[in-house]
Amino acid sequence: MNFLSAFTFEKLSVMSGEKIPVVVNANESGSLESGLSPEVSKIDMTAVEKGDPVLAKKMFLINNAIDEIGFTWYHAKLFCIAGYGYSVDSQMEMIQSSVHTYVAYQFGATYPIDTQISYVGLLVGSIFWGFGGDLIGRKVCFNSSLLLTALFGFLTGGMSSMSTYCIFMALANFSAGGNLAMDVAVFLEYLPFKYQYMNTIMAAWWGVGQTITNVLAWAFLPNFSCSGPDYCPSSINRGWRYTWYVNSAVVLASGLLRLFWFKLEETPKFLVSVGRDAEAVDNLQRLAKKYNRKCSLTLEQLEACGPITSEFYSVENDGFNYKKILNIVRHHCKILYQDKINGWSTSLILISWLFIGISYSIFYNFLYIYIAQHGGDTGTSTYIVYRNSSVANFVGIFGPVLAGYMCLIPKVGRRLTMSFGALASMAILFGYTTVRTAAGDAGFSSATYFFINVYYGCLYAYTPEVLPAQARGTGVGLALFAARVSGSFSPVTYYFGEQSGSSVPIWVCGGVIGSLAIVSALLPFEPSKHRSV
Q: What is the pTM of this model?
């Protein structure tokens, strides 16, 4: 399907096969009546906005307007510019794992404190930017995070001690850590329902970022690095610095494109959720006018729904009062657990992120210890190691593409796609333990990245789709926080496991990855059949 083609919006086809007429007039839809109209309940995922029926009605009208406008060049550009945020997040995780050995050689470190600190930066960033997106809006966080990431990345490459390296590397990861929360929220909140599967495909950018970093590491580390800790002055160990510099330059270029070329408008769903109806209508009307599309939404229709019942809008209402901010954050967290079904959904999402955060990273770390203990040799040189890794990450780009296609199959949807990805990943990972050669490593690592990205890509998209608009950034931030808290234990486990030589963690973590198939099947919402609110 050519998603850049112009489309005339006539009817909304839900995945169940129903044809629901487009409603652009609040009175005709019945959305001014007490409670929700049948049309709202059928089309929109209203269960996630039970706490505020007025907001659910307004979201229904906003969704109608977005569907009426359809897919435009604005959405195509947003797919690329927001998608690259996935790349930056993965680049920051990948660059640390790539350069760690040579940084440790130069600064004489034995314990992986830098990797531990990188997780601290990521998890603090996920909370700060995730919560910030609900407090001050998506636009500010979206535009500033990449610029800060690039700035601190340049500084990281110039550090002369492990302590200063850790500080600026943590700041770079902090800046990138919550960018992902904004990327998925911003793209979803502009996306017509017909193209909502693209939120899953957008995770392909994750593999793009990992491939970019691996190619940089492949180019610089084998040729500009020392051979061991015995003699490793900076003069012969510049590869890790070059990797940081070039990676930061790429991130800076994408940040400048966001600021001066794309020029994001605040998302209409955020504006409505904080009581700024006029701005929401104005943004949509200007988008429709720019691309010569129809937009029937008026301010009167939104105002006729009534005022939002929540007194907690954003910090703009009362300025930056810390007590008010804490109250809003607390309120957003309560929204995620406003009733049993939302509480169940939020809990399972957090469990999913917690499990995948620790199990996958530990499995991969212990995998090579296990293979070496059983007589395997997966890399005859640094060149071969980075070559295999680059190939595997490139193949991983296409996992989310398969996930996006599977989400379109009516009887499969998001949940079964995640179950398939989890089970396939478990099978491939257990098979990986039989590898004894570099060629086998290349093949199994490619398959691993492909299938784990089927799961990851769908989970990244599913998470914001089933979260209430008012607390979407908060929910995604908490999910990323859960993954990074659990992932932060992987360096500790790896370090002590390497000393003891135990292979138990590899089997436990592989089983945990497989258990995610059950968790996915238990999730209560199926977004492929309803519009996100």
A: 0.79
